[in-house]
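can u do me a favor
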């Protein structure tokens, strides 16, 4: 009853010895190694190479799926991409930097409406870029496909960052434009009430109030002088330009802006996927 077990152990040991022998030959030899191998050794080596190719194929397929969905890669996947596909690694870094810049812009928004306007501007920019590529007769079809796939990955990455930010506490704490207007109205009423109160004060009381005001003003000037030494963020100009472009959306309610920004995303996504489906080789 012990013979099958003993035979199995012997086969396992023999396979291990053959593998060790091959690894040693691999370290010391070159292309002539396979010619020196026995048929059984060649079969084992071919099997191992096939397994390795399949593993790498699956890994690359998983990475591609993540990138197309706007996902982020693990450190191991980034290392693999850097080592085996330098061009795709370079593209991944570019898209990652674009997402980081977009996150900073969202964090600089003053209202919830600003977040939606920023997204609409970004999606409109993607759509214009995609149509420019589509309609350019000087770009070969193969290169067009690559450019359109890259734009789609950028679109999906930006959408991922938008969804993440909208679900964050930072977004929830942002006021709406209506809330800001109400707050401004209350401040105006308070200032008017204070002005009326000053009109009823005696001359001495007015002088005392002015002295207090002058002292406060001097303090504020000193604080302002200190603040001017603080450097603005490097992308401050870009943020200001982005916000200035959103003026055309003034007057829309928050719900209308959210609907419009979602439609802008779906429009560019549908356009890109339709193009890729129609022109990608079968």
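np, heres the sequence
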């Amino acid at each position: 009853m012990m013979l099958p077990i003993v035979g199995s152990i012997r086969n396992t040991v023999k396979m291990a010895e053959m593998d060790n022998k091959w690894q040693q030959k691999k370290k010391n030899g070159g292309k002539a190694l396979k010619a020196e191998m026995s048929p059984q050794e060649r079969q084992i080596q071919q099997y191992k190479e096939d397994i390795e190719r399949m593993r790498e194929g699956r890994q690359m397929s998983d990475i591609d799926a993540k990138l197309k969905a706007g996902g982020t890669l693990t450190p191991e996947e980034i290392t693999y991409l850097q080592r085996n596909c330098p061009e795709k690694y370079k593209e991944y870094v570019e898209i990652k930097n674009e997402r980081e810049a977009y996150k900073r812009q969202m964090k600089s928004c003053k209202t919830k409406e600003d977040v939606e306007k920023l997204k609409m501007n970004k999606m409109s920019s993607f759509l214009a870029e995609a149509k420019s590529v589509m309609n350019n007769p000087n770009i070969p079809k193969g290169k067009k496909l690559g450019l359109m796939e890259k734009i789609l990955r950028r679109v999906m990455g930006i959408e991922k960052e938008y969804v993440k930010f909208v679900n964050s506490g930072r977004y929830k704490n942002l006021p709406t434009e209506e809330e800001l207007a109400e707050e401004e109205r209350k401040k105006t009423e308070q200032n008017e009430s204070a002005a009326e109160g000053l009109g009823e004060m005696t001359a001495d009381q007015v002088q005392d109030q002015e002295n207090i005001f002058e002292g406060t003003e001097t303090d504020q000037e000193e604080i302002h002088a200190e603040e001017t030494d603080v450097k603005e963020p490097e992308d401050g100009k870009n943020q200001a330009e982005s916000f200035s472009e959103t003026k055309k959306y003034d007057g829309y309610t928050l719900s209308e802006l959210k609907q419009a920004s979602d439609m802008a995303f779906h429009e560019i996504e549908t356009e890109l996927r339709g193009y890729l489906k129609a022109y990608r080789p079968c």
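Residues 219-234, 236-244 have pLDDT under 50 and may be disordered. hope that helps!!
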